[in-house]
Amino acid sequence: MPKFDLITWNKNNYISIGSTNLKEMPPGTNFLLNTNKYETGINSSFIIRKEESTAITAIEGLPKTPLKELSEKLWQIFQSTGSENDFAKRLKDALSRETGAFSIVGYFKEREEEFLIAFSTYRDIFIDQNGESVFLTTINELAPEEVYRLPPNSLAFWSSQKRTFVGTKKKTRISRQFKHRMIREIYETPYVLKRTYFLKDYPSIQLATEMIRNTERIWVVGSGSSLNGGLELQYFLPELDIIAIPAFEFKLHKLSSLDKDDTVVAITQSGNTWGVLEVVKESKKGGANVISITNNPSLGKVTKYSDVIIPILAGYEAAIPATKSFTGTLGVLYLLALTSRKKLGLINDNEMEKRLQNFSDFTNKLPDILPQYETSAKTIAKYLSNLRGGYIISAGMTYPIAVEGALKLKEAAYSHAEPIELEEYLHGPSAALSEDMYNIVIQPCEEFAKKRFLQKFEKFHENLGHFVVIGATQEVQKKAKNTENISLVNIDYSDTMLYPFHAVLFVQLLSYWLGVYNNTPIDFPRGLVKMVEK
Ligand SMILES: N[C@@H]1[C@@H](O)[C@H](O)[C@@H](COP(=O)(O)O)O[C@@H]1O
Question: Where is the SIS domain (predicted)?
Answer without folding.
Answer: 208-346
